[in-house]
Amino acid sequence: MTKQLYLSNVSRGTKHITKGLLPWLFPILLLTIWQIASSSGILQNRVLPAPSAVVSAFWQLLVSGELW
């Protein structure tokens, strides 16, 4: 396999991985910024609770049966 052909196959694989991950990048980045802002006190819990608090409350309600 020649070097140019190898590099072409590598770049094609990288493009495929990037296309698959790109739609997930913005939501993950948004959740990360939200969590950091809530944990550091930039966002007040009264205004917008941290994502971890939302997931915790959801899980507690789900387990207790209050959601259904």
Write the layout of secondary structure elements.
Layout: H1 3-40, H2 51-64
Q: Can you characterise this structure?
A:
The chain is an all-alpha fold. It has one domain (3-64). 76% of the residues lie in helices and 0% in strands. The longest helix has 38 residues, at 3-40. The mean pLDDT is 85.
How much is the average pLDDT? 85
Largest sheet: none
Instruction: Estimate what percentage of residues fall within beta strands.
Output: under 5%
Helical element count?
2
Low-pLDDT stretches: none
Number of domains: 1
Radius of gyration of CA atoms, rounded to a whole number:
21 Å
Residues in helix, %: over 70%
Shape designation:
elongated
Terminal-residue CA separation: 60 Å
Total beta strands = 0
Order of helices and strands: HH
Structural class computed from helices and strand pairing: mainly alpha
Relevant terms:
2 helices, 76% helix, 68 residues, mainly alpha, single chain
